[in-house]
């Protein structure tokens, strides 16, 4: 792959992961506070968004290691989304499938970034 083209796509994938993570944080907060909380007035489950802040600094700095562990970390939200998508009803079910879609998006973006920043690829270019 051409070095300039690789750098262009690497930047796009990095921002795709960052924006996907921010969207997932917003979804988790809005879901449990306003859209479909488990209890009226908001749910403590909104705290599930807080751990999503952990990889954000590393993603913004383009740290390959953060992208690598984030690929496994994001699977927790995928699992939660599948479980709630399968068991919940109404708006909560739709939000759960949106969580699944965002977690898949983030997973693909972080895996592509980790792949395109591997040292062997840089040495070959």
UniProtKB/TrEMBL annotation:
**Name listed for the protein in its UniProt record:** DUF2069 domain-containing protein
Q: Where are the transmembrane segments?
A: 15-35, 66-83, 95-116
Q: Which domain of life is it from?
A: Bacteria
The UniProt keywords, alphabetically, are: Membrane, Transmembrane, Transmembrane helix
Instruction: Quote the InterPro entries the UniProt record gives.
Output: DUF2069_membrane (IPR018643)
